[in-house]
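User: Can you fold this complex?
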Amino acid sequence: MKKEGVIIQLKNVERHYHIGENIVRAVDRINITVNRGDFVAVMGPSGSGKSTAMYLIGSLDIPTHGHIFLDGYDISVLGESDLAQIRGRNIGFIFQQFNLIPTLTVKENITLPMSLQGISKEVMEERAKKILEKLELTDRAEHYPNQISGGQQQRVAIARALANDPEVILADEPTGNLDSKTGERVMDVLKKLNKEGKTIVMVTHDHDLAYQYADIVYWLKDGKIEKVSKRK
Amino acid sequence: MNYFLFALRNLKRKGIRSWLTLIGIFIGIAAVVSLMSLGDGLKIAVTSQFGIESTEIISVQAGGSSFSAPGSDVVKPLTKSDVRAINELSSVEFAVGRTIETIKLEYNDVVQITSAVSIDEEYEKELYSIMDIDAEFGRLLKPGDSKKVLLGNNFYNADTNGFDKTLTAGKEILVNGESFNVVGILNKKGSFIYDASVMIFDKDLEELAGYGENVDIISIKVHNKDFISKAKEDIEKLLRERRNVDVGSEDFVVSTPESTLSQVNQVLDAIQIFVIIIASISILIGAVGIINTMTTSVLERRREIGIMKSIGARNSQIFLQFFIESGFLGIIGGAVGIIFGTLIGYFGTLTINNFFGATTLPRINFSLIFFSLLGSFVIGSAAGIFPAMKAARQNPIHALREES
Ligand SMILES: Nc1ncnc2c1ncn2[C@@H]1O[C@H](COP(=O)(O)OP(=O)(O)OP(=O)(O)O)[C@@H](O)[C@H]1O
Ligand SMILES: [Mg+2]
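Assistant: Here's the predicted assembly.
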């Protein structure tokens, strides 16, 4: 059930870093529009600003200039607690290094975003059960992250990203730490989520992967959009 | 979110170094708890040793201080006519002179040196009621008795009385070489003042020791204990006149139970202040230790904080997580301290009982335990405020960018 319309919009977004006297324009006047249900890939050389752009969209970082709209709302003017709420409810992050919490079990990692939103224990249990089944992790529920493989850890990370059923999934090189076989499996999961209606923005270095799965590929260089290729 | 579960998980993975920093809290809380649970017992034990039981008794001694040895020759002694004069005062119910003499007891061919106290035949009933004594064996001295002696409970048992032979009512004993009949043995009082005492009627003791008209102590009972300080002033005024001394240069001391108690309390308070200072310093050191542990912990968990924020944790939630974890550190240090402190208090009270023969029941004070736990949580979480603020304010993307 694909809803129509724009979900993410970046308008002249810049993010500067100061290193001593110099200003690094990690993201430099970028304009991107993502439609609901799109699968977007972001490519570019190392240091081109892909992760920075991702953090900005995910409201983990605030632009130096420009505006970012999420579902029509300008998030670049929001305060800390509102931004945290957006990250908790509307965005799901997936990282190259999985970034699970080592002291929590698989299931606890998945329920953590829910408990941060104050969701009741019964609802958490029920949702966790469904998500675990969906990602074929039920038999790993009580394991700790260091007791499972990389591919499984990344699936747990996806499961955690789905915890509060966000519309947008942001994945920063989700297959970067995986071999091609397990990487493909993770990509299949993302594709499936996209088919179910989730909007996905994925940073990748893998050219084939980008063109195989994404509808649109943005190429960044030195913080600017160099090229946009659409699949049709 | 369940902060407590989170805190417990994180505490479990803390290293031995973090636990060592809790020693300060442990010592501080242990000191406070043992002091508080020992304090009552100590106070009762010490107070009973001073024989402060009746609150309406004033005592007068010659000399510059209440702690000078009774009957020292250098001071002008009090006399029986002083006693009679005090008895004339309207605020006084009665006054009794008492003399304490060193004597030689001989029984079963064993000689012991001890002191005997005189009993005024005229006021014997009143004296017994002031001292709250009764006979366990035999009876108390009564008017008309001659060459009779009343002994404290310590003289009874053959194993402990030093005579190797049970001494009880009806036995003959030599006092300074003269034969006396033991009229009775007192009940055990738990205070050596009474348990080791030898009481003899004044005329018999005077005959043995020859102190004439002098008395060592005058014990005075007032009519109304609410006017005890008025009575004290009357007595002081009277004695100043009789002994011809000015205000401020008295050669006698009139002490009320309050003044004696306040001296005891001063000593106990000094001990308490000392322990509280030590405890405060330990707790301060402990708090600094917790600040240190938590700051390290925040640095070590930079990435975790970044992750938490990326999945929707608000700054306030990060703050609470570290704040509560820090409070738990305090509670753990405090709990161990409470266990030790309670044990010290418990066995300390038993020891005091054995030593002084007091009968304070050792008891576990639950409100003390509750407030100590609460206190150590407050100390711990207060120490965690700064590190927790640091954690909450951390920029998540710096930590997330670092290679794991
Ligand atoms: N905190 C920072 N301070 C200063 N410069 C920074 C900071 N974070 C990122 N940069 C710079 O911003 C630029 C963009 O970095 P970014 O991480 O977005 O690149 P990227 O495209 O994700 O690279 P990679 O493919 O290696 O992950 C780089 O030049 C980087 O050095
Ligand atoms: Mg990157």
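The pocket of adenosine-5'-triphosphate (ligand 1) is lined by residues A 17, 19, 24, 26, 44, 46-52; B 398, 401 (CB under 6 Å). Chain A has a mean pLDDT of 94.
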